[in-house]
Fold these 2 entries.
Entry 1:
Amino acid sequence: MNTVADLLDLPHPDDDLALRHGRRRYEYHRFRATAFKTGNYLRYNGVGPHATVSILTDAAPETIFGVLGAGLLGGHVRFAPDGAVEDAVLFGPTEKVDDYEVQGGCKRIAYGRKPEDPTWAYFEREIWSENPFFPETDVAGDTTLVGEWSQEAALRAARDVAADLSSDDVVAVRGSLEDSPTLVAGVLAPLVAGATILLPDDDQTGTVAVGTTDPPENRVLDAPTRPPHHD
């Protein structure tokens, strides 16, 4: 398992819960389909191998699907860009996207409130018409996913974290998804283990936490601090 495509191909039961955020729930079959749709949608909006997708950090399912969709295409994720954005896509909540200038053909993709500007892509309106299947690609494991983390390095670290999880665990993400160790331990590792990712809302709790040292959960996962090296 070296790539995001390999991760999404793991044979977890379709009806098991993959992601929860407030009242929003994604069983594994819907989670996979939405990740594949996002990859196809990003491709349609100009993302391909080695393209950069700027994602505005938000504790929402769309952030996770943006990361996985970019990874499926061999794209590189950049969180919280500074200044005018010249990447292939700027992706985030409408109110945050509105704070940025884009240059060089960068495409705005917004979710949440419907954008007033008709030139912006509106994720919720358009994603559901995309194909829920993703064709095989030649994306390599050494392709950069985010920061200094390649897809293979991120998944090797996720496998190590997943050794401390079972499919019954609910992993509460209590740090920012912009932080690569939190992303690896809080999103990728549960997907390896067939566990549930929880983006906590109000007083929701899981069985284990990531991204904090003092959570309401009784256990905190150790997140990797840097990408693992090849043996």
Entry 2:
Amino acid sequence: MTYCVGMRLNSGLIFMSDTRTNAGVDNVSKFRKLFTWSVPGERVITIMTAGNLATTQAVINLLEERSKIPDERRPTFLEAPTMFQVATIVGDTLKECVRHQAGEGPVSESPFSATLIVGGQIKGMEPRLFLVYPEGNFIEAGEETPFFQSGETKYGRPILVRAFDPAMSMEAAVKLLYVSFDSTLKANLSVGLPLDMHVYTADTLEPGIQRRIEPDDDYFNQISSGWSDALKVAFDALPDFKF
């Protein structure tokens, strides 16, 4: 399992994912699930992957390969004129990989399925964020749905729903993501450190802060312990039930 979150803020985009993959409690590994490409001054694209590892690796490898050796599939995702077309290319590549892995079985019921979060900006346009489904179709983040989650979403979602604001600062949004991931890590062993993060500031058209958050990360541990203490204080402050 995994947990990925992509946020669309007024000031840019933030992406965060864990790195744990598992095929049972005795077979746990770490793999990168957050990937960023850039054409300096022209575009920045980030993709996060959740689902079958063989499928997601095939998607990333195909996108990479086709961008370096363009053929009849042009434009590649690094040449497409809009982020909508980037999401379309990524969706088509995912659908192709799912069908190849699953053979002739129903695509939507395949154990080889995966979900991707795709975001970025192309020069002259606004930053955009998409959630791509195994069937290749996708939806776009908007005012009413300004962030996307994939993987093990239920434990970290209440934090985001209550506190997220598109107008919040990048610093506050990163703090919110840390809390959301900390809640998920404590509730589900299939999601684990280290975490990968990319903070993209709108209109810079170059990768922003990219960081790997290890188990000994001081800020993450400060947020984790501080959030636990704050919850206890808030709980104690609530009125007791009266019999």
